[in-house]
Amino acid sequence: MNMQVTAGVRVASTVSADGTVISYRSQGSGPGLLVVPGALGVAADFDGLAAQLAPHFTVHVIDRRGRGGSGPQGDDYGVDAECADIEAVREVTGARNVFGHSFGGFLTLEAALRGGFDRVVVYEPGVSVDGSVPMGWAEECERLLDAGKPAEAFLAFIQGINPETTGKAPRRLLRLIIPLAIRKRERLQKYALLPTIVREHRESAGRDNDFPKYAGITSSVLLMAGKGIENTGAGRATVRLHGTLAGSALARFPKLDHFGPEKDPKAIAAATAAFCLEHLR
User: Is 90 exceeded by the pLDDT of residue 229?
Assistant: First the structure.
């Protein structure tokens, strides 16, 4: 394990089963808690959530493969590789709690099914239920990336993956809105992640309606969902998961959208800490 410390955040790395270096950012003290970011995020995006959790936990935010100081996705990329990465960080940190967001929530459930965690928290996990992770956008996205048009590729992604929301907006309107809604640095980060995003969503979509297997998770599970739970694919999938995981808890955040963990880390951290600490007793 290698480590460096900057402004209270310790950056370390370990090696996954296939030899890929996996970097993670740590802060705080107490029981270990892993954070698994979604497809659009990198570890540093969750510094705010980690800081809110830090008074109660030693928080380790994983830079999933293809991001930050971690190695590339690799030719044999898939859910098994991602779960091996999570296990590598869990093993070196000793963490028994885990929080996952979006696609990271999907991976968190996959990892929990393999064992090793006592308490699992997921915010709108990217589990495909009845086609809730559509892939009709992927070929256009890849074609635009190959043509050197990442901004247009991003629009293809956000429209295709959200058919009930941004998918209904004219693309010409989104060309005006996106630069105002997302800062340039964040846009460039998301553009750079698009090739990995496509591969990740294919992993989830390829397991459509595979969710009943999560009933085999023996950990205590808290499911979280933002507003519009009945009107978005992610929201409906979360409700279905709640019905599948016997004994799971469901927390709703009616003022937050899919990116609640980044936009209101205080609220998400409070609910996460309350759940994990209660189940520690």
Answer: no
